[in-house]
Amino acid sequence: MDLVKDLEDRLLFAIPKKGRLSQPCLDLLRGSDIKFNKPQRLDITLVRNLPIALVFLPAGDIPRLVQRGRIDLGITGRDQIAEYQLRDPPRDDGKGIDEVLALPFGGCKLQVQVPKDGDITEPKQLVGKTVCTSFHHLTSSYFAKFEADATGAAANGDANGELKTEIEWAGGSVESSIALGDAVGIVDLVESGDTMRAHGLKAISTVLESTAVLIKSKRARNPELVNLIASRIRGVITAQAYVLCTYNIKRELLPIASKVTPGKRAPTINSLEEEGWVAVSSMVERKKIAEVMDELERIGAEDILVRTIENARSS
Ligand SMILES: Nc1ncnc2c1ncn2[C@@H]1O[C@H](COP(=O)(O)OP(=O)(O)OP(=O)(O)O)[C@@H](O)[C@H]1O
Ligand SMILES: O=P(O)(O)OC[C@H]1O[C@H](OP(=O)(O)OP(=O)(O)O)[C@H](O)[C@@H]1O
Ligand SMILES: [Mg+2]
Question: Which residues are in the Histidine biosynthesis HisG C-terminal domain (predicted)?
Answer without folding.
Answer: 239-311
